[in-house]
Amino acid sequence: MNWKPRPAIAALLGLFSGPIALLYVGRGKLALSFVAAFFAICLAFMFSITGHSDNDFLRFAYWLAGPVVAFRCANSAKGGMQPWFARWFNLAGIAACAYGVVASVRIFLYEPYWIPSTDMLPTMRQEVHILVKKRPNELRRGEIILFKFALDQGYERISRVVGLPGDRITYSAKHLLVNGKETRVGRREDYLDLPFGDHRERYSNQLDGVSFDTLVNAERKEESTLMMKIPIRGACVQTEASLECKVPEGHYFVMGDNRDDCDDSRNWGFVPADGVIGSQGD
Description:
By secondary structure, the protein is α+β, with helices and mostly antiparallel strands. The chain folds into two domains: 7-110; 115-281, Ribbon (Umud Fragment, subunit A), CATH 2.10.109. 31% of the residues lie in helices and 31% in strands. It has six helices and 15 strands. The chain has helices at residues 7-16, 18-24, 28-46, 52-76, 88-109, 265-268, and strands spanning 110-114, 129-134, 144-149, 152-163, 168-172, 175-178, 181-182, 184-193, 198-207, 210-216, 236-238, 242-246, 251-255, 271-272, 276-281. The strands form three sheets. It has a seven-stranded antiparallel beta sheet. A five-stranded antiparallel beta sheet has the order 7-6-5-12-11, with no helix packed on it. Strands 8-9-10 form a three-stranded antiparallel beta sheet, with no helix packed on it. A hairpin with a 2-residue loop joins strand 3 and strand 4 (152-163). Helix 1 (7-16) packs antiparallel against helix 4, helix 2 runs antiparallel to helix 3 and helix 3 packs antiparallel against helix 4.
């Protein structure tokens, strides 16, 4: 049978999936190269090897390469026997399996997340990608979690767990106490907040064996960080410069590491346990 792929179909498939389009034109090794390139780009995103603008360019270049390369391969292909993987039912099966694997990983194992803000400086920079482990069995203090925002269930947030159910959280004079124990253990060199050039005081912290740094803006008044938008009757006592809460059952108290420039439980309340998507670990 003298089979030859159609360039228009190859280009159309390439708009949706470069590897599938290349399988259609009978270029199995090139399809594997596209898969390898995809994972290389993902790793570059995850480990912040490239900047945000570079990430956008790589994503666009990879997407554009699919239809262009597939079209050229189909256009230059010589007639011959059709490879098994280029047949429509096999292509559909390969695409379904690939989609099923990716969906299963995202649902049950890991969820990629893009950091949209500076809330977690200096631990996590803005506009970097991380992998979040799905459905943690038991959270611990100091762990970073991804959760559904209580005020908007369609919006996901990331922050650090500082209070478990039953814990007493006290935040006063820019110090965090968990069950009466100070979490700050030492002063480090100041942090330069780019691109604005503002300095932040940087402190090392310990919470149940988890070490992390926090930033404090010494010029920011304390009361500006304590503006509860959701009154929690019976759970928190707030003054102009301090906040003390007892974390209710089935909830967590979270705080960002960039203490004076973040939106966390001090502003909108507790995170329900059923709203936790996953954890990033320590």
